[in-house]
Each structure stands twice: as structure tokens, then as C-alpha cells.
Amino acid sequence: MSLYKNLDRVLARYDELQALMSTEDTPSANEIARLAKEYSDLTPIVVAVKELASARSELNDLEFLLEAEEDPEILNLAEQEVKLCKARLPELEYHVQLLLLPKDAADSKNAILEVRAGTGGDEAALFAADLFRMYQRYAENRGWKFELISINEIGIGGYKEVIVSVMGTDVFQRLKFESGVHRVQRVPVTESGGRIHTSAATVAVMPEAEELDIQVDEKDLRIDVFRASGPGGQSVNTTDSAVRITHLPTGIVVSQQDEKSQHKNKAKAMRVLRARLYEAERAAKEAERAEARRSQVGSGDRSERIRTYNFPERRVTDHRINMTFHQLDKMLNGDLDEMVDALLTEHQARQLSDLA
Asked: Nearest-CA neighbor of 42 among 87, 91, 96?
């Protein structure tokens, strides 16, 4: 990527936005909001571009001084300054390149997080519960709100499926690479012989879609209501409060029965449905882009094994970036930032490589 040819365009657009927002011809409220959002998004880029331009100008002045100056002491100082300036320029250029990378519009959104037991029976369900608690603690560490949408438990503390909404700053950006198959290697609590078993759970992270993001036509929905029941068919209530929504064009089905109110169950089910439809739309677009350029961390395929948690060796390995962390206990307690930062850095490096 030729960096400098893009910078004048960025600065020109920034000046144009300033002029548009200060014009006497008052734009509509929606237009003002759109311009202000674009202006705000460009501001950190412009600050970085100006810092880079200042450093390049300083280097030019110093190099001119080296050619014109005869005083040995001043020449020595100037040579030292040139070295420092030349060392700083690549860092400033890299920072600007990162800021100019295409932004994922969903990064700032909240997320719907789904964890399901995979292969491995009860042990897989117990591992799914471990992953759920790991994300819950990570959310607490970052000050995010963690709201349970639905849960399907087994009797020994495991989860067949659990769905939550995670709300806060940059939630989807920091959770999106968790989607995939998580494998665990450990001795199950139900194993009397001390043998290590391998089981798995799947994680799906989807940006939570607003009504403006994804339009759902009522005629495309089939809504069934039924009586909620607990484990083993035990009655939870005596009214038809449980809701099953089928999106006819895609066949996506969402069921919700955790609330006693049919209205609340429908509202929760619609949140999950919008998120799944929005993610399906995003995935289709991303697949098209990935066909031309591989800019993702891994393929993004949720059937792909992305991470292994090895309990005997107290290590976690992310297979997409071939990185191992010997901090299993800390990670399961929600200390995920180092892993997340490594995934984001690798993703940005791939993006820069694709733009080169």
C-alpha cells in the first residue's frame, strides 16, 4: 500500500466535513449526525497524519542543516537527532497505516454469545459451562453487562446450551475471534481410571443487530407458542408462554422459554434471531471478500478447531496464530486480554499484508 498518496485525500475530506458542518445552509438533523460521526472517526487519523508530517518535516530540516552546517558540535547534535527521527518515522507510519485499515462496522456493537456442548457427552457440557464462566468473568473485568437470554442445563452443573447478551464498549471487536470449536483435554470428574479425555464445545459470537441493521418482515415469520417445560418434562407453568420463531426464508429457528411472559420470550427470541440473520449476512459478504483476499484470522469457519485447553499441562493453544499460553487458570478466570490482543494484532498484520 502506498501510504502517502492516501493522506492528502484524508486531510481534504476532513476539511470538507468541517466546511459542511459550518455552512449557512443548515443540513437536516440526520445529515448533521452522519457528518459529525464521520468527522469524529477521521479526527484520530488526522492527528496521527499531522504528527507524521511534522516528523518528516523535522527530518528534512535536520538533513538540510547537516549539509549547510560546519560547526562540529552542532553537526554531532544534528546527526543524533537525525538518527532518532529516522527511528521514529516507521513507528508513526505504522500507526497511521493501522488507523487507515478498513473498519468492521460491527466492532462497536454489543454481541450475542452462544456456547454449546459438542462431542464428549457430560464432559462437553461441563466444559461448555467452564467457557461460559470464563466469558462472564472477562465481561466483569472489562466492565461489560452480561445478560442471560436462555440456558439449557444438565443435572451435574454442565450446559447443553447457553445464550447471553454482552453489552459494553468494543464488545464484538474483542469477542469476534472466539467463534469456533474449543477443545479440552483433561481427566473428567466422572472418570475413575484417571484417563485424559478429549471433548469440545462450540462458541458463536454475533453482533447484536438493531432493527435498523436488519429488517425482519412479519410475513416471513412463523410464531408458535407452547407450554414451557423443565428437565424431564416437568411443567414450569400452566400457560402457553414459550415461543418458537421460524424465519421462513432462511429456516433459522429460535426458541425461548426462560421468561414466564410470552411477550418477554418473544422479545428475547427476536433479539437472537436478528443477531443470527445479521451474522449470516455479514458471513456471506465476508466469504465473498475472503475468496479474493485472505484477510481473516483463520477461515472463520465455525466447524474449525480454533483452540485447545490442555489441563494436565496447564496450557492454552490458539491454532490460528500458533500461540501457546501457559496460563490456563488465569484465562479460565477471565484474563483473556493477552490472547485477544494477539489475535487482533495478527488480524491487523494480515490486513496490512493484503493492502501492500
From this structure: 96
